[in-house]
Design a protein that fits this description.
Helix content is 29%, strand content 13%. By secondary structure, it is an alpha/beta fold. GO terms for molecular function: metal ion binding; RNA lariat debranching enzyme activity.
């Protein structure tokens, strides 16, 4: 399967698809999947601009509205995560994930799907410590604070992702904290000298994503946000088989400059059989994670990358001429559905987030396994149960750009998305994202099932990893 990955989209869908189609023409290789790492700016009409966190003078419609209205159709199956410059009111309608436009799928605030046998997970937004432990309290119309806090990563989503077995690909807008130490730092500073202070103080990137990287160890991790192309490799091979959060991955030697692809037509050949890692990869840990950050869409070639990855459907894909584009199998990840159902009672639509269970809580893991088994039983009688194209159908909710009037103001109107209703019905959870706003959840966890120390435990894990790295860095500097 040939996969294109793009950094910050900034409303430039036309340019991105044009570049990919030109690459297909020049190489004779068809692209089967596109991954966008945030800042899509899924603006449907002028009302959505008021929920976009950019200075007023930079607000513009971009290309997305034409894909939303049906004037254009994404030529390639496209997966999207959210960044920090988004039409947040639109993305919130699809909190659990869904079609933003035909063939253009949002993974949700956090999510995990299966594309042709590849397990792809992702986390939207960026990290800000002041909002990390809060619930999703923001309501339309967003005030000056809400318009920014609404896209800040929450502990609740990171916690859910911790229950996954190692995915093949992970997408984030933010970089994992200190990931730069596993690549060519000197080259990064040459391109972005103003990163020096954050690098020296180990504050570049997201600590929760650093923790996820150590735990999940995906084969590939793609990011954006910092508007620079940067490659790194995290080697886990010398770690003992214990909790990844309690150990620091071994740092690889800085990659030589020539190892960083310089043009978007260069493919990365991957010989590992990804089929072995889906979904039973928990028993076969990935030794390394290949990290690649990409820049923003522009005239330079550092915002787009092409990868050839082995998948179980390669034979099917190769049976089609390169001039045809077969429909790639696209389904929900079974374990993610189970996690979402079990963790639903902890979802907070208020400022306060109830305490979360610890990730090693045997009862929670047992419930997740039970839900997973129940879904497998349902699959026996309904083989199409997990097929996303069957469960969720794209529907125009807010008015299109052409139909918009001030009376339709999307900044104040709350639209109930049928795709969210369908997802909630699939896993039998109440839909709290209704037009009337948050409703009291009568299924809050009992005191016995909640462990108040979970937040402190997670903070301790993050701080321990950061402190250990800081000590090693000081020791290394002292020995020179």
């Amino acid at each position: 399967m040939r996969i294109a990955v793009e950094g910050c989209s900034h409303g430039e869908l036309d340019r991105i698809y044009t570049q990919i189609l030109e690459n297909e023409t020049s190489t004779g290789k068809r692209v089967d999947l596109l991954l966008l790492c945030g800042d899509l700016q899924a603006i449907r009409n002028e009302g959505d601009l008021q929920s976009l966190a950019v200075p007023v003078k930079y607000r513009r419609m971009g290309d997305f509205a034409e894909y939303y209205s049906g004037q254009k159709t994404a030529p390639i199956l496209t997966l999207v995560i959210g960044g920090n410059h988004e039409a947040s009111n639109h993305l919130w309608e699809l909190h659990y994930g869904g079609w933003l436009a035909p063939n253009l799928y949002f993974l949700g605030t956090a999510g995990c799907v299966n594309v042709g046998g590849l397990v792809i997970a992702g986390a939207s937004g960026i990290f800000k410590p002041n909002d990390y432990h809060k619930g999703h309290y923001e309501r339309l119309p967003y005030n000056a604070g809400d318009i920014r806090s609404v896209y800040h990563t929450r502990q609740y989503e990171i916690h859910k992702l911790q229950y996954l077995y190692r995915p093949d690909i992970f997408l984030s807008h933010d970089w994992p904290n200190t990931i730069e130490q596993y690549g060519n730092v000197r080259e990064l500073l040459r391109k972005k000298p103003f990163f020096r202070k954050e690098i020296e103080t180990a504050t570049l990137g997201s600590p929760p994503l650093q923790m996820l990287l150590a735990q999940l160890r995906p084969r590939y991790w793609f990011s954006a946000h910092l508007h620079v192309r940067y490659a790194a490799q995290v080697d886990f091979s010398s770690l003992p088989p214990t909790s990844a959060t309690e150990n620091e991955p071994q740092r690889c030697e800085p990659l030589p400059d020539e190892s960083l692809p310089s043009t978007n037509s260069e493919a990365i050949d991957i010989s590992d059989d990804l089929h072995d890692a889906v979904p039973k990869s928990a028993s076969a840990p990935h030794i390394c994670t290949e990290f690649l950050a990409l820049s923003k869409c522009g005239s330079r070639a550092d915002y787009l990358d092409f990868n050839d990855m082995k998948t179980p459907i390669d034979e099917m894909l190769h049976s089609f001429p390169s001039t045809e584009r077969p429909e790639v199998p696209f389904s929900f990840d079974l374990r993610w559905l189970a996690i979402t159902k079990v963790m639903h009672p902890y979802l907070s639509l208020h400022r306060q987030q109830p305490p979360l269970p610890t990730t090693d809580d045997h009862l929670i893991r047992q419930k997740i396994q039970q839900e997973q088994d129940a879904l497998k039983t349902r699959l026996d009688t309904n083989p199409d149960l997990l097929h996303i194209r069957n469960v969720q159908k794209f529907v125009v909710t807010a008015p299109t750009h052409a139909d918009f009037t001030p009376a339709h103001n999307s900044a104040t109107n709350v639209y109930e998305n049928p795709q969210t209703c369908a997802f909630c019905e699939l896993i039998d959870i109440p839909n709290l994202l209704t037009k009337s706003g948050p409703q009291p959840d009568t299924r809050h966890p009992t005191a016995d099932s909640m462990q108040a120390g979970s937040t402190q435990n997670e903070l301790a894990q993050i701080r321990a990893v950061a402190a250990d790295r800081k000590r090693k860095r000081k020791s290394l500097a002292a020995s020179k």
